Amino acid sequence: MTDYNAKFNAIEVTDELIAEHGITKEEHGIMLDIMGRTPNYTELGIFSVMWSEHCSYKSSRFWLKQLPTEGEQVIQGPGENAGVVDIGDGQAAVFKIESHNHPSFIEPYQGAATGVGGIMRDVFTMGARPIANMNALRFGSPEHPKTRHLLSGVVSGIGGYGNCMGVPTVGGETNFHKAYDTNILVNAMTVGLADSDKIFYSKASGIGNPVVYVGSKTGRDGIHGATMASAEFDDDSDAKRPTVQVGDPFTEKLLLEACLELMSTDAIVSIQDMGAAGLTSSSVEMADKGEVGIELHLDQVPMREEGMTPYELMLSESQERMLMVLKPGREDEARAIFEKWELDFAVVGKVTDTRELTMMWEGQQVGSIPVPPLVDASPMYERPWEETPQQDIIAASDVKAVDSLTELLKTIMGSPNMASRRWIWEQYDHLVMGNTIQAPGCDAAVVRLPETKKGIAISVDCTPRYCLADPKQGGKQAVAESWRNLTASGAKPLAITNNMNFGNPERPRIMGQFVGAVKGMSEAAIKFNYPVVSGNVSLYNETNGIGILPTPVIGGVGVIDDVSKAVSIDLKAEGEDLILIGETKGWLGNSVYLDTVEGREEGAPPPVYLDQELANGDFLRGLIDDGLVTASHDLSDGGLACAAADMAISGKMGAKLVQPASSDVPAHAYFFGEDQARYLISTKNAAVIIEKAQESGIPAEIIGKTGGSDLKLGEGDAISLAELREAFEGWMPEYMAVEL
Q1: pLDDT tens digit sequence for 117-150
Q2: 47 Cβ contact partners less than 8 Å away, ≥ 6 residues apart
Q3: Which member of 21, 28, 54, 633 is catalytic?
Q4: Is 54 designated active site?
Q5: Domain spanning 567-735 has what CATH number?
Q6: N or C terminus: which one in the chain shows less Cβ crowding within 10 Å?
Q7: Model-level pTM?
Q8: 82-131 tens-digit pLDDT
Q9: Which residue among the candidates 21, 28, 100, 297 is catalytic per the annotation?
Q10: Has 297 been annotated as catalytic?
């Protein structure tokens, strides 16, 4: 009789091998205490992935506990596949954002594609049908030799997977900076719709219940993907290509439909996506949440390659797979559904009362680990951190003024970080399903819920240069801008998901950035009643010791009761008044203006006053609900001038903006300052709005009028919309037209 334990675990587990698996000496000691012996090769692999930064959040868990995660609208907060919020009428929005940074740098098409596939599985695992995708992308300098290749591959991967799934990609953000030259960021977000009383969870239960594997066969792709995502890159990164997963969106579409069909019955006890760490993380999480054990018969796992070992089967990150616990006797019913959709279905184990993860092969045990300590004793570090030094406030009067505000506006609107992203989003199907009300290019995407007049608004936001200068203000501002973008569309913000992208947390300076960002995010989320219900932490985003900018991306979700009231950014008609809501002091520290005119990325970022944000935003939302606003845009990068340009270009209509006589701010700072808590709106009812603002104590001034074919800023020269649009629309197609 074959000794399968000897066959599969013949590799000697030495100190060197343990170190190669990313386990420190201290962690090794904990592992030995848990096992009471040296783990075998398969067990070592399981400890390695479960205790990786990617799966255990060992450097971030302590601080993440500071984030607000509860509210009357929250059905499920962090800890499940995705967050769930109540949107009324017996419906729930299910959503999450997640990173696929390292894989996308190594193999941009598959890295981005499988990132999209993975986040959609997180959502439909909860019983929700995906209705919209978003993304937040960061690339290196446009001059870097790899940037075009990476951008092209990532965009193709996102579009290829999402389009094949028939889920619209309705918006996102893309930015360039030299800090991402060797570590791009690919953050993917999905929002789904479910009945609020039919949410599915991953908690295993029912001793003896069958554990079922469904979806694609398991191969060797993605092995140690979670471990790779928990380490910084070096000059040998290209050698890590085998750890990048390969996706098949057509199979995922079948898996989606099969899962939702089975979910319409009462056969499922629990369900878990096989994401990072594959069969290991899914089985461990299900067992831990249910306080049970799981016995897996690995020889029953559908395999697409010959001679696969338990180690490979447990660590593979092959895509389009799910693990379920079914009610006893429902196997044939479930099998019929998955076979109808031409997917693999296999009973691979059972729920036990041992609280152990036990692995079998042809009746013999090849590994067993107690689940509670594997999870509870996973390392949690309070790493040393240094507070980021405060930068000096830069007075507007100390920043060079330009001769022509409109020529500068043309330069900024045609620059890599401000130019139109049409080249990107035209590769995404943003209209499939027929419910997209506001498409890419607006403050927030708006998607109508089928057969209702209600809609979901979605945004993704982050300003990394602010986070580098002052992580706390930057984290606060990312939440506030997300809240403003939803508000500007007319939506009531409900909750957020976050993607915390940072460098090596073992460096106190980097850990300090993370701590500061969490503190700022927490303050803003509490003030806005805008809790964090899901998210992802991606650390070690650096190569050879050079880290990215701190990039805590916020994905926001809100609800609009009547999508006919949703407001977009495009100017609608001639002769309407333009009103600026919020106070303008002309803040130019760390602004687009300062970088463009003086080449300086420095200075304290604009402060975020949460009381002002809340008051101004609530006021605007009321105006929109009353039908008083025809176009609306929040002010962020590039300030008032760039917001006006966005609105004019989008509406194909000119405008004249005049700085009020009461303002003593220098003209260049008035039009390009990045003060927060501000909105630019167009209206036919200016007198009514100004009266309401005065009654409410909200700063609001009429600063211009729509009309004509030019955009004019103050008393300076005007620029034709045609010239401005050519600069805005031209940069990216011209950049990407260069042969790769």
Answers
A1: 999 999 999 999 999 999 999 999 999 999 999 9
A2: 21, 23, 31, 39, 369, 374
A3: 54
A4: yes
A5: 3.90.650.10
A6: N
A7: 0.95
A8: 999 999 999 999 999 999 999 999 999 999 999 999 999 999 999 999 99
A9: 100
A10: no
